[in-house]
Design a protein that fits this description.
By secondary structure, the protein is an alpha/beta fold. Helices cover about 35% and strands about 20% of the residues. Strand 8 and strand 9 form a beta hairpin. The longest helix is centred in the middle third of the chain and has 16 residues. Bound molecules: pantoate (PAF). The site of pantoate has 10 residues, from strand 2 and helix 6.
Length: about 280
């Protein structure tokens, strides 16, 4: 696997490499990322990953400095799954001057995750556009686990007419249903045993809606109450339209998704289940 850090080296290395499939990450890779890399291989000739912990998407209370940096282990995983190229810029490479031109996503950035992480999606969209401009991929893969991020980046790509196909990678789960995440590493053994409940309450909502129940507010309340009873501190449980994450219309007919974010001890877990 070839590794570059500067923008010019990366552009030069990726010239004439056929159809480039790009998987941006912040490192600290787990099997969910490895699965995205594997899915990426099906969409082109050269799989390119990036590792960059993006200061712009961290809020003042989110610890940018403590984000785990595991570069050597990450490289071994990328190599093993057949990634051809890793773009691993330093902050000085990607932000050589204060980043004053920012991508401002529309109102969707303030829903759900955005209510609890103001400015987060502006930071994500800005760095992803910049990474796209360096790597110039034909296809980019983002995990469905970060559903709102995927929606925002898909809309950005469409509205700015970027010639890139956005692919949503399926969420990888442990045997008990817990979505794989870097944050699972912070769970105590007791919390780890409790954590799959998040997926269970969402799956129950999915099954109820599939069975014809459209009292979304009640379903959300019931899920919230169950999480409360088991010690979770929940930011939201919401049934939304897949297309724009708005509330479902009363007449139905649209594809829905149930999403949740909740804190179990220290770690804040997110998950979603398409309906
Ligand atoms: O999902 C992530 O890891 C990050 O938000 C991304 C897309 C790499 C941008 O920093």
């Amino acid at each position: 696997m070839q590794i570059t850090s500067t923008l010019s080296d990366t552009r030069a290395a990726l010239r004439n490499r056929g159809r480039i499939v790009f998987v941006p990450t912040m490192g600290n890779l787990h099997d969910g990322h490895v699965s995205l890399m594997r899915q990426a291989r099906e969409h082109g000739d050269t799989v390119v990953a990036s590792i960059f912990v993006n200061r712009l998407q961290f809020g003042p209370n989110e610890d940018f400095d403590k984000y785990p940096r595991t570069f050597a282990a990450d490289c071994a995983k990328l190599e093993a799954v057949g990634v051809a190229h890793l773009f691993a810029p330093t902050e000085a490479d990607l932000y050589p001057e204060p980043q004053q031109y920012l991508v401002e996503p529309p109102e969707i950035q303030n829903l759900l995750e955005g209510r609890f992480r103001p400015g987060h999606f502006r930071g994500v969209a800005t760095v992803v556009l910049k990474l796209f401009n360096v790597v110039q991929p034909h296809v980019a893969v983002f995990g469905k686990k970060d559903y709102q991020q995927l929606m925002i980046l898909r809309a950005m790509t469409r509205q700015l007419a970027l010639p890139i196909d956005i692919v949503g990678g399926e969420t990888v789960r442990a045997g008990d249903g817990l979505a794989l995440s870097s944050r699972n590493g912070y769970l105590t053994p007791e919390e780890r045993a409790e954590a799959p409940r998040l997926n269970r309450v969402l799956t129950r909502i999915r099954d109820a809606v599939r069975g014809g129940d459209r009292d979304f507010a009640r379903l959300e309340r019931e899920a919230l109450a169950e999480l409360d009873r088991h010690g979770w501190k929940t930011d939201y449980v919401a049934v939304r339209r897949q297309a724009d994450l708005r509330e479902p219309s009363p007449d139905g007919g649209e594809a829905l998704v149930a999403l949740a974010a909740s804190r179990l001890g220290q770690p804040r877990l997110i998950d979603n289940v398409e309906i």
